[in-house]
TrEMBL record, chain A:
<feature type="transmembrane region" description="Helical">
    <location>
        <begin position="12"/>
        <end position="30"/>
    </location>
</feature>
<feature type="transmembrane region" description="Helical">
    <location>
        <begin position="158"/>
        <end position="187"/>
    </location>
</feature>
<keyword id="KW-0472">Membrane</keyword>
<feature type="transmembrane region" description="Helical">
    <location>
        <begin position="301"/>
        <end position="319"/>
    </location>
</feature>
<dbReference type="InterPro" id="IPR001851">
    <property type="entry name" value="ABC_transp_permease"/>
</dbReference>
<feature type="transmembrane region" description="Helical">
    <location>
        <begin position="128"/>
        <end position="146"/>
    </location>
</feature>
<keyword id="KW-0812">Transmembrane</keyword>
<keyword id="KW-1003">Cell membrane</keyword>
<feature type="transmembrane region" description="Helical">
    <location>
        <begin position="50"/>
        <end position="68"/>
    </location>
</feature>
<feature type="transmembrane region" description="Helical">
    <location>
        <begin position="75"/>
        <end position="93"/>
    </location>
</feature>
<keyword id="KW-1133">Transmembrane helix</keyword>
<dbReference type="Pfam" id="PF02653">
    <property type="entry name" value="BPD_transp_2"/>
</dbReference>
<feature type="transmembrane region" description="Helical">
    <location>
        <begin position="99"/>
        <end position="121"/>
    </location>
</feature>
<feature type="transmembrane region" description="Helical">
    <location>
        <begin position="215"/>
        <end position="237"/>
    </location>
</feature>
<feature type="transmembrane region" description="Helical">
    <location>
        <begin position="274"/>
        <end position="295"/>
    </location>
</feature>
<protein>
    <submittedName>
        <fullName>ABC transporter permease</fullName>
    </submittedName>
</protein>
Amino acid sequence: MSAHVHSTFRRIMPQLIILIAVLFLNFLVFPDFFRIEFQHGRLFGNLIDVLNRGAPTALLCIGMTLVIATKGIDLSVGAVMAIAGAVAASLVVDGHSWQTALLGALAVGAICGLWNGVLVAVLRIQPIVATLVLMVAGRGIAQLVTEGTILTFVNPGLIHLGAGTVIGIPTPILIWIALGLLVTAVVRKTALGMLIEAIGINESSSRLAGINSRVLIVSVYLISGFCAALAGVIVAADIKGADANNAGLWLELDAILAVVIGGNSLLGGRFSILASLIGALIIQSVNSVILLSGMPPEFNLVIKALIIIAILVIQSPTVKHALYILRASAEPLPSDPIKEAKESPQ
Amino acid sequence: MIRSTHLPLLITIATFLLAYTLCASQYPAMLSTRVVANLLTDNAFLGIAAVGMTFVILSGGIDLSVGSVIAFTGVFLAVILRDTSIHPIAAFVLVLAITISFGAAMGAMIHYLDMPPFIVTLAGMFLARGAAYVLSTESVPITHEFYDTLQSLYWKAPGGGRFRLTGMIMLLTFLTGIIVAHRTRFGQNVYAIGGGLSTARLMGVPLAKTTIGIYATSGGLAGLAGIIFSLYTSAGYSLATVGVELDAIAAVVIGGTLLTGGTGFVAGTFFGILIMGLIQTFIVFDGTLSSWWTKIVIGGLLFGFILLQKGLTWATTLRRKPATEFAAQS
């Protein structure tokens, strides 16, 4: 057991170091960053804000990690968020209870995921194209549901999901932590995680080994759609309205980035949901440091882009390989024919 | 006999002709030169960006930075023409130099750091959009007599259609793109890389030069598209052309290019652009359909063309199978 904890810790070490560094940067620009207060029956503080605002990206990256582990990608999650928010809002506006609205939105998200999964696993369309269809059409569908307006609602039950608290902790934080734990437990306490990794490493050989890759691929897209729907409901509940045009806009890119910062390869294979979640928190902390530093908001994107490029360069295979060579240079290395062939003059 | 590789292109052209006939049968006015001229003018910037995207996708990559680069170009031109007195042509050269080096830098990162194009161009997308914000968060108008001169250049066709300079530049870009893709060493190398990276390396394709060249081309054409867009709107706005990269990718896919790379035609992209423009024109003509139907129809079209390509690949492999079995036996 302790060996297991040790290996998990080793896996998430680089992400933890980056997160701590970014949080420390937050502390430098804003000394009160780590202060958490309990007022009006809820926790207040910048750290809580990071956890709370990071909820949509964190939820998305749970599903995205599994999808990317199968060598896939899900570009449609932002659009699915918009559809789910629109469905939930239109259901409560029509007088249904918030439970019905939540279930309806989650069901629609699952159907969207099922559609993506069938395109990828059964029709064997490349994931990036298959999910592009829903990414392009999805916002149109969401606008169809809201009839082009921003649907606002006052249902307290639904709003509680995005803006409420449970024993002082904002609900979104509890939702993403609970879902993250649940999915991690399901894939790691059973063989499912290993089977998903097998598909990502080599789908044909995994199928020859007897893995029902088709069902598994459909189910990872289904989970991704479900996570996106949950994120969509939270975002809609937070602003008490469904905005088909802007809900979850470009969040699919943040989610993919979180997975990549989490050290998961876009080429599939081994994955860590925990590392992806830390990746999502890193992105949110970067946003926070830019806000707190009081720099003009125009600089937000440039700084975010530069930090991301720096993180990506550190994690790129070439730099990793160079570090590995550097570390191992004390002992003689067996020659690497592939690398040599690549570096020899053309 | 028609080669099966040409079939997607022919089907795209047939779809366009069929759709145009259907539209024209409902609204005869759609046959007028005005509609045709506007189809070219309105989609000029998208078309130019899509040519660059075609090269990137043919090589098996993707460029998500296109929309942001167009917006950056527009804002850069507007700000530099407002704050300095340099001639627009000098500004055009300057901005093209910036966007080409920007694309080349992304290509270099993809090749030398061995990182997926998706992630590198995603970071590039944030960077270019951010740079546009830094220059100006407001919409900056462009008022320069040279712009007025360029905008007033058109050839008036019988029927009242105005074929503007921007539309002509798009056609010229497509022609150049077709020649480069099919008649030059660079084009061959792009197809080779798209067919398979390791095969291309063994064939002696200069990988670094070609990869950097591909993304520099895409960046440069996005810059040109930005110049055309600034001529089209007479302003630079950092929030403009959000999501244009998706339209460009959609046009390339509808045009019959496989996203895995290696197969496709620049000419197909041209018809992809025309089909997408036609849908928008039809919705304007109809008047009762809401704007969101554009997205849904384009999504549906994308799906249709992807299925079609799948069907074709499936049919060709099925047809070839007995032949290889026969060869194995003999």
